[in-house]
Amino acid sequence: xxxxxxxxxxxxxxxxxxxxxxxxxxxxxxxxxxxxxxxxxxxxxxxxxxxxxxxxxxxxxxxxxxxxxxxxxxxxxxxxxxxxxxxxxxxxxxxxxxxxxxxxxxxxxxxxxxxxxxxxxxxxxxxxxxxxxxxxxxxxxxxxxxxxxxxxxxxxxxxxxxxxxxxxxxxxxxxxxxxxxxxxxxxxxxxxxxxxxxxxxxxxxxxxxxxx
Length: 212
Description:
rod-shaped, two-stranded antiparallel sheet, Arc Repressor Mutant, subunit A, mainly alpha, 70% helix, single chain, 2 strands
């Protein structure tokens, strides 16, 4: 390596140590510079910088650690240090708050992703309402016309009606939970939301949820 190349390597290592201002081993510097400077060249540069006083060397067992000499920086008075501590505390508090908000947002997102969309819930509820209405009408026709049917057939119809009613109630509750979640951040009345997304309530459809 020429003196010019060696000087460039040393300057690159010096700039890096000054910018980072934290302890590193030779291998740390070599890897963090993305191997732009050979490991041997990094060692020579650190040795030279240590000899010049730009870098301090500490030995921990068999490991040598290097850090930029703090004497190279302008001195800080007590008020500056206090201000830096205050800003550090503020940033730490802000970071904790942002992490908390991120965690809450991720939880809400997982919940929303696991539930059907408003459109899907509304479509399913409409289908169930139509099926329940059909079965109720069928049961009403059988009752009014006094059509003789077997106990098994009647029980089957009642069972299907009850099952559909339970599904209606379940889907209605899911739809209302989703709508309530939306309304928490919606700036207008509930009626306006229903109108905007095309929600038709039981009252609008003229139906009443029967008791199972």
